[in-house]
């Protein structure tokens, strides 16, 4: 088995009323209006041809098998104000 490191970095413009909240595990998620929360994480996509449409899997077993390969995940959130 080989190790695969994936780094996800996004820069987004978001509404001013979005907030960061710390989870019980010490990570952070975004708090949206109306008590909605959002976490941005990896989701595997599949295609039978790399030039065609990519979709997520409809099989919970396949998704669970892929997610079981993930040993750790880290997404860092930071608001930058000018």
Radius of gyration equals 16 Å
Task: Give me the number of helical elements.
Answer: 1
Q: Indicate the proportion of strand residues.
A: 15-25%
Biggest β-sheet strands, sense, barrel:
3 strands, antiparallel
Description of the structure:
With 82 residues, the chain is of the alpha+beta class. 11% of the residues lie in helices and 20% in strands. It has one helix at 60-68; strands at 19-22, 28-32, 36-38, 45-46, 55-56. The strands form two sheets. Strands 1-2-3 form a three-stranded antiparallel β-sheet, with no helix packed on it. The radius of gyration is 16 Å and the shape is extended.
Give a concise summary.
This protein has about 80 residues and is an alpha+beta fold. It contains 1 helix and 5 strands. About 10% of the residues lie in helices and about 20% in strands.
Keywords:
82 residues; alpha+beta; three-stranded antiparallel sheet; two-stranded antiparallel sheet; 1 helix
Please give the structural blueprint:
Blueprint: E1 19-22, E2 28-32, E3 36-38, E4 45-46, E5 55-56, H1 60-68
Antiparallel strand pairs: 1-2, 2-3, 4-5
